[in-house]
Design a protein that fits this description.
Radius of gyration: 16 Å
Strand content: 5-15%
Number of strands: 3
Structural class: mainly alpha
Largest sheet: 3 strands, antiparallel
Number of domains: 1
Distance between the termini: 20 Å
Shape: globular
Strand order of the largest sheet: 1-3-2
Helix content: 40-55%
Protein name: SCO5389 family protein
Length: 131
């Protein structure tokens, strides 16, 4: 299961009353490691004005955390909620390299290179094969 959804939130969703703030809270509480990684990448971007992107490059400490990160970034709804909350556009190369771009940078050469097949291939190492 990707998210631990409290009954009141599930009931609100069934009634069509689920707002972004409630969903973001469920994501934060259900996927704390993924939340921390995305927050760190967004903080890195904020801490370096003028940098093309912020990133988090530390491998997850366990398969549990790796699973959290993969679930968060593979789900359109979860990823979108994280991007809206942190005000960034996320890019993901593997289990440890998550980048946060300013929305205005999405059409930049740096972004296009990061998400390109070339960028993906150049970021591979034998240690990350099972990532």
């Amino acid at each position: 299961m990707s998210l631990d959804v409290p009954t009141p939130v599930l009931d609100a969703a069934a009634r069509g009353e689920l707002d972004d703030a409630r969903f973001v809270a469920v994501v934060r509480d259900s996927l704390p490691y993924a939340w921390k990684v995305v927050g760190a990448a967004a903080d890195d971007l904020s801490a370096h004005p003028g940098a093309p992107f912020g990133q988090h490059e530390v491998p997850p400490p366990s398969e549990r955390e790796r699973g959290e990160l993969l679930r968060a970034l593979a789900s359109n709804a979860i990823r979108g909620a994280l991007e809206r909350h942190f005000g960034v556009v996320l890019a993901f190369q593997n289990c440890h390299r998550v980048a946060a771009f300013a929305p205005a940078a999405v059409d930049s050469p740096v972004y296009r290179e990061f998400v390109s097949p070339r960028g993906q291939v150049l970021n591979q190492t034998p240690e990350l094969r099972d990532c």
